[in-house]
Design a protein that fits this description.
mainly alpha, Growth Hormone, Chain: A, 16 helices, 0% strand
């Protein structure tokens, strides 16, 4: 049960998505590039990315279990926002790899549950209108678009070091607004242990494994796409435009998500997403031209936009109400946590020896495998 106006809560949650993904619009395209300009090796960059995602594997489950057991989702959400923002300030004081590794680890512990908690809040606020989730989530994509384009130009004019300060400013603003997030009260407390067993059911485990493969296939893209373009001679403005174009395509899908999921089943959308991911990474294996690179970015509408919405709705369908926080945390941990961790480590290890082009063909095969497993498991 939610106490208060759903319209006002939609605005608060929309603002949280706006800030969270605005920060991501700085971090994803530019933090690894920042590390690259600090002369970190490909393996070091992959290791930094991996330790951050390792925390996304472990700690959403811990925080989610704690939140569901004691019904303290809101206090934990607020705590993690403020503490992670505070830890981020440490990046101002060092460019040493091992110190940055430690900072990244502790930052991730508190940053890790934010998005899964936010997804759970959103499902509660939407209630029976869950298929309109994309319209609310689109605020995050809109923010991402604005940030990557504007910041790319600013970095070209000034210095990439500016990203540390901008991320801190956005994180602090998100933390202060987080205190207004809706508090959900479950009328009857039940034991936590039986709820955890839902994660072991066949439909859940197959889905989580295939989602793991999908995010694993994105490892090259998220870790080295900006570096790949930089190595091809493209400027920061073009790099920002490519990320922005992906988000523009993504946001169009999110705005129309309610119509998409009224017409197509969640299973069909998920399978289609795997096939488009296969094609997307295959294109990046073959091409260097700016036009084809931009075309491949349009596919982000499906490989992230449609896949993400379908995943959130699918896991929400499979998980009972009393374990919603844990369910969304597990989904986030296995995909954006474990999938991205393995992807970053694998790509970081092989980037210097085989290069981004060969990594993209491997990504294509991984996405294809995930799609085939999911399709035949639902036959």
């Amino acid at each position: 049960m939610i106490k208060g106006s759903r319209d006002s809560f939609r605005f608060i949650i929309g603002s949280q998505y706006f800030l969270y993904f605005g920060i991501m619009g700085i971090f994803l395209p530019y933090f690894n590039l920042y590390c690259y300009h600090l002369n970190f090796t490909g393996f070091q960059i992959g290791l930094l990315s991996a330790i951050r995602t390792v925390t996304i594997v472990l700690f959403p489950l811990f925080w989610g279990a704690l939140a569901d057991r004691f019904q303290i989702r809101k206090p934990i959400y607020i705590l993690c926002n403020f503490v992670s923002a505070g830890i981020w300030t440490c990046y101002f004081y060092t460019t040493d790899f091992w110190l940055m590794f430690v900072i990244t680890m502790f930052y991730g512990i508190f940053y890790a549950p934010i998005i899964s908690f936010l997804e759970a809040f959103t499902m509660d606020v939407l209630g029976k209108e869950k298929k309109s989730y994309g319209k609310l989530r689109a605020w995050g994509s809109f923010s991402f678009i604005v940030i990557v384009v504007v910041l790319g130009r600013i970095i070209d004019l000034f210095s990439i070091e500016i990203i540390i300060a901008v991320i801190l400013a956005g994180s602090m603003l998100q933390a202060f607004i987080s205190v207004k997030i809706p508090n959900v009260v479950i009328s009857k407390k039940e034991s936590f242990n039986p709820d955890a067993k839902i994660l072991l059911k066949k439909r859940v485990t197959v889905f989580l494994f295939c989602s793991f493969l999908m995010l694993l296939s994105h490892g090259t893209y998220y870790a080295f796409f900006s570096i790949h373009l930089d190595a091809l001679g493209y400027g920061k403005t073009f790099i920002g435009i490519t990320w922005a174009l992906a988000s523009i395509a993504e946001i169009l899908v999110m705005i129309k998500s309610d119509k998409i999921f009224k017409r197509f089943s969640l299973e069909n959308v998920l399978v289609f997403s795997f096939m488009i991911a296969t094609l997307r990474w295959l294109i990046l294996f073959f091409v260097k031209s700016p036009g084809l690179i931009l075309i491949s970015q349009v596919f982000h509408a499906v490989t992230y936009g449609a896949f993400h919405i379908a995943s959130i709705l699918y896991i929400d369908l499979l998980i009972p109400d009393k374990a919603k926080t844990l369910g969304h945390a597990a989904n986030n941990a296995v995909t954006y946590g474990l999938g991205m961790t393995v992807g970053f480590l694998f790509n970081g290890y092989f980037y210097n020896s085989i290069g981004a082009f060969n990594l993209f063909i491997i990504s294509s095969l991984i996405a294809l495998s995930g799609g085939l497993i999911f399709y035949f498991s639902n036959e």
